[in-house]
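Lecture notes, unit on binding sites. The following record was shown on slide 14. It pairs a sequence with zinc ion.
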Amino acid sequence: MRAMTYRGPYKVRVDEKDMPAIEHPNDAIVRVTRAAICGSDLHLYHGMMPDTRIGHTFGHEFIGVVEEVGSSVQNLAPGDRVMVPFNVFCGSCYFCARGLFSNCHNVNPNATAVGGIYGYSHTCGGYDGGQAEYVRVPFADVGPSRIPEWLDDDDAVLFTDALPTGYFGAQLGDIEEGDVVVVFGAGPVGLFAARSAWLMGAGRVIVVDHLEYRLEKARTFAFAETYNFAEYDDIVVEMKRTTGYLGADVVIDAVGAEADGNFTQHVTSAMLKLQGGSPVALNWAIDSVRKGGTVSVVGAYGPLFSAVKFGDAMNKGLTIRTNQCPVKRQWPRLLEHVQNGYLKPSDIVTHTIPLEHIADGYHIFSYKLDEVIKPLVSFDGG
Ligand SMILES: NC(=O)c1ccc[n+]([C@@H]2O[C@H](COP(=O)([O-])OP(=O)(O)OC[C@H]3O[C@@H](n4cnc5c(N)ncnc54)[C@H](O)[C@@H]3O)[C@@H](O)[C@H]2O)c1
Ligand SMILES: [Zn+2]
Ligand SMILES: [Zn+2]
């Protein structure tokens, strides 16, 4: 089969790989019909993620058609059109029983913090991902769900990460009616977080980024007020000014470890690799929220960070909530919202790239060329 493979930082290509096989009675093999490239894939592409092995196939956002099922699979049958959450999870451990699917204890022998994620290096379990014609789906009775007939492929693929993660970012903010919500990052996750904040009763939604075309999308898709941080000496002062010098009730970090906006942090993280990334967006969140407020962190961070303003967070009495999204937990409510017309996830899709040209997709998305927001991956015949 054809599959995207990692060759080293900033190098990916499409190779011929062995077809995945059923390895356990509860596995399924899915023929992928749509995949997507995520901001999280860029951390792998940039060589920021430990134990990303040459030949690994990325792709934690994919939908497809069940090709084959193991002998114990009861909920799926060949021919079913399914969406697969980015989390690999068992459904029955201590953590899964509490809905913490992204923290499953049974799927990742390499780490105790994160669970399993498709196509996300051996740090996240070493599962080959869905930027390939076929993918092995473990715990097939647990993760995937049949896609309702009314849901298009381009909308369904966004249910596997970006949409639920944005919604989860807003949920973690514990938004109360009338709250002022600031979202750092106008990528797919930030855009969905901003849009979701309204669904949860926000009174004001502000999005901060430095890419003007993405801020435009934040205005038209997420109905947000926008600020370009490159236009201010200190964006935190501006956030304070616009909130009557109190600060926002809730701030969502939808940027993560590869934040721009601070040269020293850029040198010590991306260039010298002295820390796992730059905590600029997280620090802006801590500084922009009011005392007693909530910081929701869905932007991804690697293991080690210095210069995080933890003392300020402590002395301001902040609540900091964070996780990888437990995707399947968000599906019932999000399906209702989409079916009822409250939002159309594929409104943020800008590019659809055939698998054979996926290296171009990574390049365009990494350098934010051609006004890219969300690139999807297409396969022969669709
Ligand atoms: N928690 C989860 O389950 C989960 C799931 C998916 C993605 N993520 C993470 O969420 C983050 C966003 O993902 P995405 O797909 O939207 O990525 P993306 O790369 O498309 O978007 C990131 C945006 O942040 C902006 N940005 C950079 N520095 C900034 C700063 N200091 N302040 C404000 N904006 C800044 C960039 O210009 C860009 O528009 C990534 O870190 C990704 O790994 C987490
Ligand atoms: Zn993703
Ligand atoms: Zn589990």
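Take-home: The radius of gyration is 20 Å.
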